[in-house]
Amino acid sequence: MRNKISRLTFTTGETGELFATEETFYESRFKMWFAVRTNFLNREQLEKILAYIELTGFGADASTGRGSLRFISIEEDYKFPESENSNAFMSISNFIPTDYDLSQAENLWYSIFTKYPKVGDYFALVDPFKKPLVFMKAGSVFKVRSVKEFYGCIVSNVHSNPEIVQFAYAFPLKVRVEV
């Protein structure tokens, strides 16, 4: 059970603002991996970012002690298994395609969902909410004329602060589909 906290007074609100949330707990030995594709961060910079995430936590409830992670290793130049004769891509991340991405697609297989993104840290003290956005779910497949290295976009005008944007790029894997 949780209680709603006023961001203005930092106290609990009126009566009846108690609510339930569902939580999942993993064993401390639980391992997971994630991928980073970048042309502008070197290994030392990435290690500093990961050290910061270890200290502060990751995710929506990091400020309450959730999202505690310990990074074990970084494997550079990992090659995902991809089709050498690709005619499509499958995104392993949620993303928002551009109009151009959609115009180049011959066939699409996808699911969508509405994301209600927020900002964190000191930005949340003024206005924690971004505008709702419709994303394509990870696992979406686009059959395209030619496969590119990236799809999706950075979405601007999502917050009252014009400098805040939403990352909405795909992490595409080259695949072959027969229709």
UniProtKB/TrEMBL annotation:
UniProt record, GO biological process: defense response to virus
Alphabetic keyword roster: Antiviral defense, RNA-binding
An example Gene Ontology molecular-function term: RNA binding
UniProt similarity note: Belongs to the CRISPR-associated Csm4 family.
Protein name as it appears in the record: CRISPR system Cms protein Csm4
Keyword RNA-binding attributed: yes
Lineage, opening ranks: Bacteria, Pseudomonadati, Candidatus Kryptoniota, Candidatus Kryptobacter
Xref: InterPro entries: Csm4
